[in-house]
Design brief:
Blueprint lengths: L2 E4 L3 H13 L10 E4 L3 H8 L4 E3 L2 H5 L4 E4 L6 H8 L9 E4 L6 H8 L9 E5 L9 E9 L3 H8 L2 E5 L5 H28 L4 H19 L6 H8 L5 H11 L2 H12 L1
Helix pairs in contact: 7-8
Length: 261
């Protein structure tokens, strides 16, 4: 499989690095991943991994089985118009890593003069795909887009959802990466106040979050039941939880998610 990635920014670069890290089951070798980007700097680091790079979007998609468009929303229409004459819709699948553009709009942009469309989908990963831990959402526009699902499935978890669900899903996972990082930063600052070095506090917090996540992956796991296991009557954990709630912890999280939708 040859995969063309248009754009080497935060998302496009993470897709390319993640696929290189995941191995060659899909592509055969890193050279079958081709990334296009106007600036040289972002391409140089990818080339050092054996990934093919180019400044030409058209050259990148030649012979591609899957094209992944990772550019700013205001560039999407122009990129599609540039690439459309060079894509064989009978064999090439198009995945668009873009927010705020509807399937109907994308369908109109992708349609050729004869009305033909490729299999295409909106795919929304988060930056953890660079370490193969993304939570990715796929919204199919035309066809089942199995190639996109296989590609992004190598970069973490993937879930096929409806277009209506996408804003909420992005608030939880795409924006959620930043929210999780903010918790880690706040907890690290708290750890320093309690007498730990910042690096030590961060290491402890990250390990704790990994453990909490794994507990919640168990069948029928629920946050409240896990909280009950570590809160004893009159204990320090319940005092800490109540102090956080008094300061508006849960309400702040919900308010932030609503603002992200």
């Amino acid at each position: 499989m040859k995969i063309a990635i248009i754009g080497a920014g935060a998302m496009g670069g993470a897709v390319a690095r993640g696929l290189a890290e995941a191995g060659h089951d899909l592509t055969g070798c890193n050279a079958n991943i081709c990334v296009s980007n106007p600036s040289e700097g972002k391409l140089r680091a990818l080339a050092e991994r054996g990934i093919s790079v180019t400044h030409s979007n058209v050259d990148a998609v030649k012979g591609a089985d899957t094209v992944i468009i990772c550019v700013k929303p205001w560039f999407v229409e122009g990129v599609i118009n540039e690439l459309k004459p060079h894509l064989d819709y009978s064999r090439t699948e198009v995945s668009l890593v873009v927010a705020g553009i509807s399937l109907d709009t994308l369908s109109g942009w992708l349609a050729k003069d004869d009305g033909s469309l490729p299999q295409f989908c909106i795919t929304m990963p988060n930056t953890a795909m660079a370490v193969l831990k993304s939570m990715t959402f796929q919204v199919n526009g035309n066809g089942e887009c199995e190639s996109a699902r296989a590609i992004f499935g190598r970069l973490g978890d993937i879930k096929v959802i409806t277009e209506r669900q996408l804003p909420a899903a992005m608030a939880l996972a795409s924006c959620g990466i930043a929210y999780a990082m903010r918790y880690v930063r706040a907890a690290t600052e708290g750890g320093v106040e309690l007498g730990l070095r910042a690096a030590e506090a961060q290491e402890i917090i990250v390990s704790t979050l990994i453990g909490a996540s794994e507990l919640l992956r168990e069948p029928d796991a629920h946050p409240e039941s896990e909280i009950d296991k570590v809160t004893t009557p009159g204990g320090i954990t319940i005092r800490g939880l109540n102090a956080m709630e008094e300061a508006g912890f849960s309400a702040a999280v919900i308010k932030g998610l609503r603002a992200s939708k």
